[in-house]
Amino acid sequence: MSKKLKIILIISLGCIVMALTDGIWQPGYAMKSAVKIFFFLGLPLFVLRKEQLSNFFGFKKKMLPKLVALGLGIFAFILAAYFIIGPYFDFSSVVDGLQDQLGVNASNFIYVATYISFVNSLLEEYFFRGIAFIELKRCTSKRFAYVFSALMFALYHVAMLIGLFDWYLIALMLLALVVGGFIFNYINEKEESILASWTVHLFANLAINTVGLLLFGIL
């Protein structure tokens, strides 16, 4: 089996499993994270093996100020969007959905938010940008890698968004995720490092989790 086909199958299987986990099984957040770690980290390492994986953890320190500035810009944009559209939508279903589907509540949200911001974001960057983009574009066309990685990144979020938001908000979020996927891929193409896009992804998650803190009444 070619490396291209292996990567496509690994990414597709990981997204399908997580969709079934989020949409049907709906275990607690700890079990969900364990499943994701196996399919997003363990399975690619097992199937592709070390000799087939290039090093995409390098980082150019001179790029850090630009990446932090971009991250802060995204952080500010997400919070501004929430404060602008927040009064027009009822986000109580988000809080109820997190509690019912994942067991996430005000007492444990800070721990979950810390994991999402620092660990889960790096795991997603490894899977969707390291494997589905950097590695894939080395054995297929760059255009295909761009589109495949961005679309799979967005579709992966569908199951976890259903039940939390109205359909039009989900559609808007999916569009934003596709655009975000292209931006992350562009950053990684320049740096050949998932740590570059992870820096920006980290700020985006911090902003989303700040919204979560507001919704749970912690802030």
Protein model, in words:
This protein has one domain. Helix content is 77%, strand content 0%. The chain is built from nine helices and no strands. The termini are far apart. The mean pLDDT is 88.
Number of domains: 1
Judging from the principal axes of the Cα atoms, what is the shape?
globular
State Rg: 17 Å
- Structural class, please? mainly alpha
Write the layout of secondary structure elements.
Blueprint: H1 3-25, H2 29-48, H3 64-85, H4 92-102, H5 109-135, H6 142-156, H7 158-161, H8 167-191, H9 194-215
Helix pairs in contact: 1-2, 1-6, 2-5, 3-9, 5-6, 5-9, 6-8, 8-9
List keywords for this structure.
single chain, 219 residues, mainly alpha, 9 helices
Quick synopsis:
Helix content is 77%, strand content 0%. The protein has 219 residues and is mostly helical. Helix 2 (29-48) packs parallel to helix 5 (109-135) and helix 5 packs antiparallel against helix 9.
